[in-house]
């Protein structure tokens, strides 16, 4: 009735006479079952074509190019259901129980950096440096008596090791 008489009466007047909400007239039932499967296939296809790099935002842009209007939340929900995680997802900060300067070994030196005897206290420092696309480490041993550099080791990290095994090589090389 409303669709047949828009030239005579306004939509809001006709909805008022019929005692229905105006939004009911404009509402069109959407068939989501077929769309959901097709949308899921599109998202998976875009994700695979991007070599698992695209996140929700980039997939949304690609879907808009294909004529889809989809929210990022819906894309994220579908990606989660399909187990799709972007390679470029930024890792969230997760606080640990220990901070980097508080080891379980304890503070035996107690900030006594000035020593009166040679080789009584030898300290090491380890740092990682990214060179090009590869990580290298540098480990040094220093005598606190005269601040003499006893040994250095620098190498390419092939497998991410623990810091203790990296410090053993300069100790072994300085004792030899």
pLDDT averaged over residues: 80
- Strand line-up across the major sheet: 1-2-3
Q: Please summarize the sheet with the most strands.
A: 3 strands, antiparallel
Radius of gyration: 33 Å
What is the first-to-last residue Cα distance? 99 Å
The strand count comes to 3
Multimeric state: single chain
Strand portion, in percent?
A: 15-25%
How many domains make up the 3D coordinates?
3
The computed structural class is alpha+beta
Contiguous uncertain segments of 5+ residues = none
Question: Helix share of residues?
Answer: 25-40%
Indicate the overall shape: elongated
H/E order of the elements? HHHHHEEEH
Number of helices: 6
Domain HTH-like: 35-87
Protein name: HTH-like domain-containing protein
Organism: Gracilibacillus ureilyticus
Pfam family, one: HTH_21
């Amino acid at each position: 009735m409303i669709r047949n008489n828009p030239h005579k009466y306004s939509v809001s007047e006709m909805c008022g006479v019929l005692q229905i909400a105006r939004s009911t007239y404009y509402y069109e039932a959407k068939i989501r079952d077929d769309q959901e499967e097709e949308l899921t296939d599109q998202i998976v296809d875009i994700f695979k074509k991007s070599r698992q790099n695209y996140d929700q935002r980039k997939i949304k842009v690609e879907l808009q190019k294909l004529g889809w209007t989809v929210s990022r939340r819906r894309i994220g929900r579908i990606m989660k259901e399909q187990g799709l995680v972007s390679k470029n997802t930024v890792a969230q900060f997760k606080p640990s129980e220990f901070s980097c300067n508080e080891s379980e070994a304890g503070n035996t030196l107690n900030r006594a950096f000035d020593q009166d005897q040679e080789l009584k206290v030898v300290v090491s420092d380890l740092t990682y440096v990214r060179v090009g696309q590869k990580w290298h480490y540098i480990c040094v041993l220093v005598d606190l008596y005269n601040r003499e550099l006893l040994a250095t080791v620098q190498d390419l990290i092939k497998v991410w090791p623990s810091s203790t095994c990296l410090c053993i090589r300069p100790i072994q090389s300085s004792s030899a």
